[in-house]
Amino acid sequence: MASITFSQVTKRFPGADRPAVDTVSFTVPADEICMLLGTSGSGKTTLLRMVNRLGDPTSGQVLIDGVPTTEQDPIHLRRGIGYVIQQVGLFPHLTVEDNVRLVPSITGEPAAKSRPRVEALLRLVGLPPAEYRRRYPSQLSGGQAQRVGLARALAADPAILLMDEPFGSLDAITRGRMQQELLRMQQELHKTILFVTHDVDEALTLGDRIAVLAEGRLVQVGTPVELLATPANAFVRRLMGADSIVRQFEYLPVTLALDAAGVRPHAAESITADTTLLEALLRLIQSEQPALVVEEAGRPIGHVTLGSISRSVRRHRSGVQA
Amino acid sequence: MQYLLDTRHWILGEPTSITSLLVAHLRITAISVLIGLAVAFPLALVAVRHTRTYLPLITVAGILYTLPSLAFMALLIPFTGLTATTVVIPLVLYAQVVLIRNIVAAIQAIDPWVVEVGYAMGMTTRQVQWRVVLPLALPVIVAGVRVATVTTIGIATIAPLFGVPSLGYLIFQGFNTSYADQVMAGVILVSALAILTDLALLGVQRLLSRGRRVSPATA
User: Fold this and answer.
1) Among A170, B67, B77, B191, whose Cα sits 20 to 30 Å from the Cα of A158?
2) Does the beta-carbon distance from B120 to A102 stay under 8 Å?
3) Nearest CA to A139 among B177, B211, B65?
């Protein structure tokens, strides 16, 4: 349980003509996955590194649970924050087990004591301990190495996890699998995760919330649906691909397309409110029904038809362009 | 072979016995390499931190390396006389090129992300140096020590010309008395010592390189 608040955070590097991060303010609520989305040079990594004090703001503050990070000892602070990067950075001279128990070991915890937790973590990230514990990083694939990197970041049971394009160098299939596993783990871990990415689909898949950055400034912060449905400006719309019908169908929930007419047709099938438009559309086509009932917590809240979906998309597009 | 196999030539207390000469040879080698390391380490650290110093440093060390050992030691006699110092100074200086190069290469070869993660996980600077930088650099440093040690063992053969005992004594003494078997014994012993030391240090390097490829020396 830990929230992260950026308050008027600015970071200037000597010799640069504009700040890398420019008066950014927003809050990441506890236990949420917040995606920092932007092109390269947008300041997302710089912003991330200020949370564990790998760099301090030139002005403004980063607060964890309301306490400014600059008032905390960086060594102590960092031991309570997990850090996962694209380059993984496993220690090549240490076994998988010793890599994972790095943080406990630097605080002087004996190996025997952390053994059970190391094994549990390896199982959590999908690596059977008996098979992988004694391997060296050079004996792992890219995906396996990043799983170890994740286990290592979780070893001290930190409340916050910082992830800087952790799946960026993995192939598309492995990346997709790792994203799903991260979501699965988050269901039991409830960490506050700050996740840097330049991949819009990754942001939409993983984020409870997405903060869009451009040239050091925060352009918009909101849920994936908010960013797709009401992009703040042309840049966000282009970045999110909000004009793309396919993307809307993939991520927007069916509740945006409920039929306004109160008529309840004899729909045999029902879908839940968190179903995406794409899934709803496919179900409509497969079921050969004129409409589907949309249910929230087991209660019907409306229904969708092919007509209502197409109307909602048209309405949404004209709304965006206006 | 007669000379080598004769047990009388291995008597411990005898100053010119094979055993004594072997110990003397190892001692002069160990002293030279250790002092060499003590000199090379700070110089290499300076070269890593201030990259501009590397080229002049390695150039001077390279020029020193080209000086013929016999002439170098003879030049020192007016200052240090017929003492071990006369032999050790050139040996220390010869080792600098390969040691400095390898220490610098060893530190520069460390993946900066690994160091970054060390700090990000909450390691102190001391922990990063002792638990990350040193263990990662050691195998490459030892590769340099291997080359320096074998070279030093070879050059230490001429030490007896300056009144300092080493296995070279057998060679020079054998020449003076036309005792071919003694010359052969000296040659075989020096070669064997060089090869065995190299293998032993290779073993150390392997042990230190767990999980990684064994890297050759940068020389």
Assistant:
1) A170
2) no
3) B211
Q: Which of B122, B131, B213 sits opposite A79 (nearest CB)?
A: B122
Question: In this structure, what is the dihedral angle of CA atoms A285, A288, A293, A294, given to the nearest 10 degrees?
Answer: -10
The terminus-to-terminus CA distance of chain B in angstroms comes to 36
Residues in chain A: 322
> CA torsion sign, A47 to A53 to A58 to A61?
positive
Checking if the pLDDT of B214 tops 70, the result is: no
Which residues is A133 bridged to in the sheet? none
**CA A49 to chain CA centroid, nearest Å:** 16
- Could you tell me the CATH superfamily of domain B2-208? MetI-like (1.10.3720.10)
Cross-strand pairs, A79: none
pLDDT of residue A255: 86
Shortest distance between the Cα of B119 and any Cα of chain A, in A, equals 8
Under 8 Å between Cβ of A7 and A27: no
Q: Are strands A291-296 and A67-68 parallel, antiparallel or unpaired?
A: unpaired
State whether ipTM is beyond 0.90. Answer: no
User: Are the C-beta atoms of residues B5 and B176 closer than 8 Å to each other?
Assistant: no
Closest of A41, A48, A44, A76 to residue A62, by C-alpha = A48
Token readout for A142 is 């890219």
- Return the domain boundaries, chain A: 4-240, 245-321
CA atoms of B13 and B10, how far apart (whole Å): 9
SS3 of residue A243 by DSSP: coil
From residue A46, give the alpha-carbon distance in Å to each of A41, A211, A213, B53, B144: 9, 14, 11, 32, 39
Radius of gyration for chain A, computed over Cα atoms and rounded to the nearest angstrom:
22
Dist. CA A44–CA A211, nearest whole Å: 9
CATH architecture of the region A4-240: 3-Layer(aba) Sandwich (3.40)
Residues A89-108: what's their mean pLDDT?
A: 93
Q: Chain A: residue nearest B125 by CA?
A: A75
- CA B54/CA A189 separation, integer angstroms: 50
Residues of A in contact with B210 (CB under 8 A): 93, 136
* Angle formed by the axes of helices A172-189 and A142-154, nearest 10°: 20
Taking the alpha carbons of A222, A226, A227, A231 in that order, is the dihedral positive or negative? negative
Query: How far is it, in rounded angstroms, from Cα B198 to Cα B153?
Result: 10
| Strand, helix or coil for residue A15 | coil
Has residue A77 got a pLDDT over 80? Answer: yes
Backbone angles phi, psi at A141, to 5 degrees: -80, 170
Q: In the block, which residue shows the tokens 């988050």?
A: A186
Any idea which fold A245-321 has? CBS-domain (3.10.580)
Q: Give the pLDDT confidence of B43-93 residue by residue, as tens digits.
A: 999 999 999 999 999 999 999 999 999 999 999 999 999 999 999 999 999
Cβ atoms of residues A41 and A18 within 8 Å:
no
* Shortest CA gap B201–chain A (Å): 19
